[in-house]
Amino acid sequence: PAPSPSSSPVSILGLGMMGGALAAAFLNTGHPVTVWNRSASKTGPLVAQGALPATTAAEAVAASPLVVLCLLTNDNVNELLAGLSEKQLAGRTLVNLTNGTPAQARALAARAEKLGARYLDGGIMAVPQMIGGPAAYVFYSGDEQAYETHRPTLAALGGTKWTGSDAGLAALNDLGLLTGMYGMFIGVVQALALVRTENIKAEEYAELLVPWITAMLGLVPEIARDLDSGQHLTDVSSLAVNQAAFPNFLTAFKEQGVSVELFEPFQALLDRSVEAGHAADGLSRLAEMLTVR
Ligand code: FVH
Q: What is the residue range of the signal peptide feature (predicted)?
């Protein structure tokens, strides 16, 4: 009989903060787990939880049909693959959860295919502490058959979101969400840097900042709808109004002794958009103006 999902063996290569959490989640759901890390000392805590240590990457790959990679960069993944032969990789499914670009994922998928392996790329939407919990999920793309086969096992990490058979799509979705997150954090650190110049406690100000940002997030669907429809005219806040107000921000930052390095480019984008004739449009127009090809 086919093995139940929890008895499918998994190998994890890369036991950093995230890889360690992934291995623990597979262990917690009853999977036989083999672990390998460049610095062998990181296998210790997982072995104590029941994982089998592999002394080489090749040994870890040989131990399971499903091989999860979570290294720092895709250059590291390419380096690791360079040390493995077609004989070692053929028939394995590689699930690469290392952060990377769509082009890197496509190149890795082609490389894996040449080596006779199936390839899934993944983008983890969680921090290590969330892995295996209800809010964590992972975008996947690549070999759909491999995804369907291993989905029950991968569910140990959290939700599974299929983005398509183009291997680059998981990274695209991942980077898109992280871009939104970084944009938010850029605003947060700038706001806190500004108010603390007048001795306002950051923690106190966060109580105002969180509901404000949350309320502004309500505008996102409308911006997205305008972008999709190409109808950018707004009755909320035009680019002309934003362009007129924005120098106040840059001036205040300078007056208060806060760097403008994060915000100056936004002024330049507003200026360019208004000069191009989009003064009456809303923020959705900026997404079009940012597209360079
Ligand atoms: N931590 C997080 O919150 C984020 C959440 C979203 C996904 N990211 C991405 O996950 C990848 C791994 O991140 P991490 O947090 O586990 O990172 P580290 O704790 O720094 O662990 C890095 C592991 O990579 C190994 N490694 C580095 N270089 C090499 C190499 N040349 N060959 C083999 N392995 C290598 C490193 O090994 P060692 O230094 O312990 O020997 C760690 O196992 C990453 O893409 C995030 O963007 C995490």
A: none
Q: Find the residues whose C-beta lies inside 6 A of ligand 1.
A: 14-19, 37-39, 42, 70-72, 76, 79-80, 98-99, 124, 127-128
* CATH class held by domain 5-165: alpha beta
Q: Give Cα 195 distance to the centre of its chain.
A: 30
ipTM of the complex: 0.99
pTM for this prediction? 0.94
Nearest CA among 15, 30, 29 for reference residue 156: 29
What span, in angstroms and rounded, lies between the C-alpha atoms of 155 and 185? 29
* Domain spans of the chain, in order of start: 5-165, 173-290
Residues 98-155: tens digit of each pLDDT: 999 999 999 999 999 999 999 999 999 999 999 999 999 999 999 999 999 999 999 9
CATH superfamily of 173-290: N-(1-d-carboxylethyl)-l-norvaline Dehydrogenase; domain 2 (1.10.1040.10)
